[in-house]
Amino acid sequence: MTFLVEAKATPHSDEVRIENVIDDELPRLASLTASTKQLDVRLVRGLLVGTSLLSESEYYCYMAELELE
After folding, report:
1. pLDDT value at residue 18
2. Number of domains comprising the chain
3. Taking residues 22-48, what's their average pLDDT?
4. Are 58 and 65 in contact (CB under 8 A)?
5. CA-to-CA distance for 12 and 10, rounded, in angstroms?
6. Are 51 and 13 in contact (CB under 8 A)?
7. Residue 64 host element (H or E)
């Protein structure tokens, strides 16, 4: 299996904001994953990770995984 991974981060403590950024990026990741699938004989999954820094020692992580068949 092959993973196509992209990460986004923000210093803002708004959890909803990073979720919206990740949701907005999903169509682009789907396109990239579909293109990559044609180049690799293994199963290709797209993984989008968003991190919002809440404080110096706390963070919020939002992940979206995409598998095209």
Report:
1. 84
2. 1
3. 89
4. no
5. 5
6. no
7. strand 59-67
